[in-house]
Amino acid sequence: ALGLSVVAAALPGLVEAVLGRPVAAQALKGTGEVVVCTWGGSYTESQRKAFFDPFEKESGIRVRTVGTPDVAKIQAMVQNKAVEWDLVDAEAQMMLRLGAQDMLERADFSIIPKADLIPEAVSDWGIGSVAYGYVLGWSTKTYAQKEPGGWKDFFDAGAFPGRRAMYAQPMPNLEFALVSEGAPIDKLYPLDVDRAFKILERHKSLVNVWYKSTTQIPTLMRGEEVDLIAATNGRMTDLVKSGAPVKWTYNQGAWMQSFWIVPKGAKNRENAMKLMAFYARPENEAQFAQLFPNGVPNRKAYALMPKETVALLPTSPGNVEHEIRLDYAWWAKNVDEITKRWLTFIG
Question: Which one of 17, 201, 265, 334 is most buried, counting C-beta atoms within 10 A?
Fold first, then answer.
């Protein structure tokens, strides 16, 4: 063992090439389990294939998945010192709120490699899980003659009659409201919050469903419960693949970064850090993106994917230029105040 470690220190590239990651693999060995709270459906199935199953095999640590990420639940767990989740696949707005309230463990970058991760996907509390787009989706049955092209059309019931659904969160709905009335996608911040809420108030009666989890998107569209939807690109791509009569566009979409976070006091904190380290490997991320078309944080992963996969991702050239890039620093400062206002708005 000593001989190997000396060689490993001197020639990590060679050892890795010959023996296939012995150094990294050894560091991830462990016992027990890690409880991962994530988003369910085909998304979690894809995570299991690309990350969780191979991690179990390599580390000896069992991955148990539960759902769905929820800020209030994490706050209660941390306050009551009864944390049931070790690793949570959190939207950026969740991470920012919990981080500001000192409810998260710090990411252990002595275990998690971050050199190849895009800067937007590295935070004090964790690393990016996926980058996903919030996009405009529609029924091709309802809009066979004329297709909607952006948020102005989404809120225009005269030109596009039909039932509508939006996500029950302020981000990125405030951005979409402003863009619907001509605000340029690259000059949105600081957000004109009063104006955004006024626009949403005016159109509120048009929105028939405020969905709470992205797992509801396929049900809403397959069941033809709604005709127009603000949805995630991954769920819409899945629907198209399954032959559902839907289309969607990245035009005026918003790309968002999700993060792996560890609630403060998590029972299996170390195992959570090890799973994050495994997640950061480019080959694992490349496999995931082929199963579920979301952007991944390791910049080296993109070269390992087929061109068709890259073309579907929100962070790829050709798509990203047409999308709103959310300003998390701005949201971090304003999220609490806006959330209070949002809860009053949504009632």
Answer: 334
